[in-house]
Design a protein that fits this description.
- The protein has 257 residues and is of the alpha+beta class.
- It contains two helices and 16 strands.
- Strands 1, 2, 3, 4, 7, 8, 9, 10, 11, 12, 13 and 14 form a twelve-stranded antiparallel beta sheet that branches.
- β5 and β6 form a beta hairpin.
- The radius of gyration is 25 Å and the shape is globular.
Length: 257
């Protein structure tokens, strides 16, 4: 009888231990799912574009339109399309008003300054579609078949650096990707166009992506002198380089925290 009683106790103990293990595993898996949902991870799992839902992020801003001024603005990150082969996202920012240097009135920033255009996201690469409108058929082809648009598409983020194929002495479209940051987890893309007669450098763009943070900085100007310039940066990750030059310098370099 005593042996039977001991066997019964052992059986109950084993059942209890097994039940506890099952509940523990289930609980851990449930907690993991909740954490992943809270992080909003992208379906494509690209660590440089980790958004799983639309975002509104407060950025610091530096602008030179009719005059130089600094104001914060909201950056809108919105998913347009998604499929097995990729995602299409649209990024823009909220219009800010500024005091015109030749009037007492308030003037809105030109519409062409507000748009960062479209980003095509795959697991290991980010493309930029550099036009204000992207046709629906091209979005669908990219997301479902992985087919890139034939024009206006640039690689703006990847693991490896990309060197400019043109020398400084050549006119044309220049672009490069730099790897930077304390932990080498930042990818900075730059592009600029040099006119054939070398009279000016224009259409200057910079995009900066940080691993597990997403886009952290942006810069655009229509001329090398900085006229109609926009600089945006996330203050948690980026600062502007201090300079001993006049505070009216239109361009300031980004530094990364």
């Amino acid at each position: 009888m005593k042996a039977l009683k001991n066997s019964t106790i052992r059986a109950v103990t084993y059942i209890g231990v097994i039940t506890l293990c099952i509940l523990s595993v289930w609980g851990c898996r449930g907690e993991y799912r909740n954490e992943a949902a809270n992080l909003g991870v992208s379906e494509n799992r690209n660590p440089y574009f980790p958004y799983g839902s639309d975002q509104e992020i407060l950025f610091d801003g530096r602008f030179y339109i009719s005059d130089l001024f600094e104001k914060q603005t909201t950056v809108y990150i919105k998913k347009e399309s998604s499929g097995e082969r990729g995602e299409v996202w649209h990024i823009s920012f909220k219009r800010v008003e500024y005091d015109s240097y030749d009037s007492d009135g308030k003037y809105p920033m030109p519409a062409e300054c507000l748009d960062l255009y479209y980003f095509l996201i795959q697991d290991d690469i980010i493309y930029w579609y550099s036009m204000p409108e992207m046709p629906e058929e091209e979005k669908k082809a990219f997301c479902e078949e992985g087919v890139l648009p034939k024009e206006y598409t640039h690689i703006v983020c990847q693991e490896n650096e990309k060197k400019d194929v043109l020398s400084d002495e050549e006119s044309g479209d220049h672009e490069e990707i730099s790897v930077c940051g304390t932990d080498k987890d930042i990818r900075q893309y730059k592009s600029w166009h040099v006119k054939p007669d070398f009279s000016d450098t224009n259409s200057i763009y910079t995009f900066v992506f940080k691993k597990n943070a997403g886009i952290i900085a942006y810069r655009n100007s229509w001329t090398a002198a900085g006229k109609n310039a926009v600089q945006l940066w996330d203050g948690k990750h980026v600062a502007l380089k201090e300079s001993k030059k006049d505070s009216k310098v239109y361009w300031k370099e980004f530094t990364y925290k």
